[in-house]
Write a structure and sequence with these properties.
The chain has about 475 residues and is α/β, with parallel strands linked by helices. The protein has 21 helices and twelve strands. The chain is globular and about 90 Å long. The termini are far apart.
């Protein structure tokens, strides 16, 4: 495979660089900003219209939040029930404590069938575990079948969006990738229909010849053992029905207790993700059935740090996420840096809170600071995850982990000043005098020493010569 960027072989949760450094590099790419800005602007407008059609949208959000919260509070009970239901329907359930164990389980199943290739669809969770690299090490070639994932895989790239992994690519770039990697593409143009047709020819041959598949899951229902995938292309349905062996890797937070719970999510998910009234393809399967679909079904339930998230009451709502990506499309930080700057399977606001909880590295701890705290992500979240509140919580934990630093001492001093009327008035007068050498044309554009960070990206308004209290006291006289 020819590549223009190195293939990411390790697990998806692997933040290799602090976000500020990665973001600075991303901001230098003007084409990236144009591609993402155009795509997210279009998606936001379509979603706004789709949501406006629903007079009970806020009630649906409340229902989605309540269902997820209840499901997580009884997660152990729901998972045991799901295990029993899947087994009763003819499937086999496996429990994986981390990504390495999940990869080993999947690899062993495929090796047991002598597989050299495996189809993949809708599998963010296997991106999280780095399954492709693990299978490659065992001589098994993983074939992505979602169109955007094909672009990412053939481009030797990594995903930059939960729902539209190749959002950072334009048509000309996709044409170049396909001409380089797919057969019979000498005369390929950058017309979307031609690009789609080229991918379809390549995938159809794989669908008809590869006997094993790996999928992710949007939801699983404990009472019936049913697993569900909602998609727009139909490629997932091909993967779920044609192969003889189907393996689904699912995060443990995806389980809901009852079928009735799906009513809310079947309305919330498509409008929040693709701005559709419903997904074109809704696939649901329960175990196996003779003469219909796969002959063998395995469900791998992945923890990989999720129980630790569940144990943190202040951040527990992170697990409510239904992977719609609405928070990415509204985020001003994501729009300018793109997803690859986050260094994780989960970019954007949800990645900024989920990734550092799954990856304890110092690099991942920088992600909660990748936000303006504008609150837009909370406003669009279909399951009402208060992302700004969790960001602040994780920032506090990251700062506490640094121990006593100059910044921590400065913040403690500021807290004392802001907590005392007398000290605040004294500080205000001192700053009004001390700032004079730095004020130019009514703005402070550069501060010295450790204060330089405050003006690295913005100008500051100087402290007024007269405070409001002083002005008020004069009026009273």
């Amino acid at each position: 495979m020819s590549t223009d960027t190195p293939v990411h072989e390790g697990p998806g949760i692997l933040v290799e660089r602090p976000f500020p450094a990665a973001a600075r590099d991303a901001l230098k790419d003007a084409q990236l900003r144009r591609n993402i800005g155009k795509a997210t602007t279009t998606i936001r407008a379509k979603r706004r219209n789709a949501v406006a059609e629903m007079p009970d949208w806020e009630a649906l959000r409340d229902a989605g939040y309540a269902i997820k919260r209840d499901a997580l509070r009884r997660l152990d009970e729901n998972l045991l029930k799901l295990d029993a239901s899947v087994t009763a329907a003819g499937g086999t359930v496996h429990w994986a404590r981390d990504g390495a164990e999940a990869n080993r389980i999947v690899g062993d199943i495929l090796a047991g069938h002598g597989a050299e290739e495996v189809l993949k669809i809708k599998s963010l969770t296997t991106d999280e575990t780095g399954l492709n690299g693990a299978l490659e090490a065992r001589g098994i070639d993983a074939i992505e079948t979602d169109l955007a994932e094909v672009i990412v895989q053939k481009g030797g790239d990594r995903s930059s969006h939960i729902l539209v992994p190749a959002i950072h690519r334009n048509r000309a770039e996709i044409r170049a990738i396909f001409k380089r990697e797919l057969p019979d593409t000498d005369d390929l143009t950058d017309d979307p229909k031609a690009l789609t047709a080229a991918a379809r020819r390549y995938l159809r041959e794989k669908f008809m010849t590869v006997p094993c598949a790996v999928s992710g899951a949007n939801f699983a229902v404990a009472e019936t053992g049913s697993v569900a995938i909602f998609e727009s292309e139909g490629n997932g349905r091909m993967c779920l029905t044609l192969p003889r062996v189907l393996i689904t890797v699912m995060g443990i937070e995806k389980v809901v207790p009852r079928w009735d719970d799906m009513a809310a999510f079947l309305q919330l998910l498509p409008r929040s993700s693709t701005a559709e009234r419903m997904n074109p393809y809704n696939s649901v399967w329960s175990g196996t059935r003779a003469g219909e679909g796969p002959e063998e079904f395995h469900l791998v339930l992945l923890d990989n740090g999720r129980t630790a998230v569940l144990a943190d009451e202040a951040a527990r709502d992170t697990l409510n996420c239904i992977r719609c990506s609405a928070c990415l499309n509204i985020c001003p930080v994501y729009e300018r840096t793109g997803g690859r700057a986050y260094g994780s399977t989960y970019p954007g606001p949800i990645g900024a809170i989920l990734t550092p909880q799954l990856d304890p590295s110092a690099e991942a701890a920088t992600l909660p600071f990748a936000s303006s705290l504008c609150g837009a992500c909370y406003e669009v979240c279909p399951v009402k995850i208060d992302i700004p509140r969790i960001l602040v919580h994780l920032r506090s934990k990251a700062n506490a982990a640094k121990g006593t630093t100059g910044e921590a001492l400065a913040m403690a001093a500021m807290a004392r000043v802001f907590g005392s009327e007398r000290l605040y008035a004294l500080a205000q007068r001192a700053v009004a005098v001390g700032q004079r050498p730095f004020v130019r044309d009514g703005q402070i554009r550069a501060l010295p020493g450790p204060l330089a960070g405050w003006t690295a990206m913005r100008d500051l308004a100087p402290v007024p010569k007269q405070s409001f209290r002083g002005w008020w006291a004069e009026r009273k006289r």
